[in-house]
Design a protein that fits this description.
Elements lengths: L3 E4 L2 E4 L4 E7 L8 E7 L5 E7 L6 E3 L7 E6 L4 E6 L8 E8 L16 E2 L3 E6 L1
Parallel strand pairs: 2-11
Antiparallel strand pairs: 1-3, 3-8, 4-5, 4-9, 5-6, 7-8, 9-10, 9-11
């Protein structure tokens, strides 16, 4: 069973940058598509970005396009979320997740299509 550990969250000011990391255990990381989601207090857990197993296809939510970038390093079993020009509305707990579906070509965006989740890391952006 894959386990995920997120890190890199914190308290920053509007306009600042952060890079989140998600380290996966196990030797099969390169076979999984990965995603980042976020959940603000009282709101649903929403898709932020996803990346295919080989890193060739990425997808970003409209709300973060041009500011956030997902990437992965399969040699390190780690997926990253580079977040630039952060805004107060980006404040949330950020989760990485594994999509175990091996036959789907592309990035899926629905929460229930992801099978394994990390514990989350808090990102707080002050104005």
């Amino acid at each position: 069973q894959v386990q995920l550990v997120e890190s890199g969250g914190g308290l920053v000011q509007s306009g600042d940058s952060l890079r989140l990391s998600c380290a996966a255990s196990g030797s099969t990381f390169s076979t999984y598509n990965m995603g980042w989601f976020r959940q603000a207090p009282g709101k649903d857990r929403d898709f932020v970005a996803g990346i295919t197993r080989n890193g060739l296809i990425t997808k970003h939510a409209d709300s973060v396009k041009g500011r956030f970038t997902i990437s992965r390093d399969n040699a390190k079993s780690t997926v990253y979320l580079q977040m630039n020009n952060l805004k107060p509305e980006d404040t949330a707990v950020y989760y990485c997740a594994v999509d175990l579906e091996g036959l789907y070509i592309g990035v899926r965006t629905a929460r229930d299509e992801y099978d394994i989740w990390g514990q989350g890391t808090q990102v707080t952006v002050s104005s």
